[in-house]
Amino acid sequence: MASRTSTRSRRDGEKYSVLLPTYNERENLPLIVWLLVKYFGESGYDYEIIIIDDGSPDGTLEIAEQLQKIYGKDKILLRPRAKKLGLGTAYIHGMKHATGSFIFIMDADLSHHPKFIPEFIEKQKEGNYDLVSGTRYQGDGGVYGWDLRRKLISRGANFVTQVLLRPGASDLTGSFRLYKRKVLEALIERCVSKGYVFQMEMIVRARQLNYSIGEVPISFVDRVYGESKLGGNEIVSFLKGLLTLFATT
Amino acid sequence: MTKLLEWVFGVLLLGAAWAFVTFDILNMNLPRTYREVAWPMPLYLLVTFGCYSLATVGYRVATFNDCDDAAKELQAQIKEAKEDLRKKGFKF
Q1: Burial of A186 (0-12, 13-18, 19+ CB in 10 A)
Q2: Is residue A153 less than 8 Å (CB to CB) from chain B?
Q3: Range of the domain at A90
């Protein structure tokens, strides 16, 4: 591809594509992009940011277009879709035009900080891991803005999942991850669940397919702008998903 | 083998071993003490596992890191980002 050869690879020839699915993130999108540019710029890795907006009524796409003008069409790619169609298909859609051999997946709501990106990349190189997963549960990892109830649910759900599935990774529902492109493609093809369970299924399938998993401790700062959601519905659908994975993998 | 089958298999194996000792199915004339130790074993295991679970989850909730510094850093960077983006001609 022309764009691939023309981009200057400063560090090692590898390129990293960041997939950012968005829905009503006009407040957060400019900030997350600014941070991504900052940390990729400082560490010198070659990158591109792919924004997949699912027809946000708040005008997220217009914000994305402004950012594209500022940072250039080789750095910011827009792959909008007409309406909300789910995370798995958003990744497939975004990957179609990704030119990187590695793919970053993260939330656009600032709960995942781009400062960890260089650590993900170093970790990946260290063991040539197929995927590197951010973890809130180990080392210096942690959360901000969670009350006791939320912590208890999170730890409890994680414990039950560890016992039942033995997935070989400590944070199953986190969604800050680095994948080899081929690995992500293979995993998405096999994953059927939605929401929280989608991220969990990705890790469980990865273990099933004998992919190697590295982990990087991350701090998770709960949504600065916008509402964070964890209600009874989320818990029920999480349990359903967990039991489905328990019976089928 | 799915995780479910692994669990069923494991429980059956343990259950069989337990039944052999408790009811002396093979008529091996095991000493009485063996049987007395064996029969409440499932309950012991269950209670032990329950205690272990509660202790583990409790400990992990208590030691869950609060990343106050990360939140502060982010707030400062948000300010910086907004100023810088405005300078570059971005309209919020």
Answers
A1: middle
A2: no
A3: 2-248
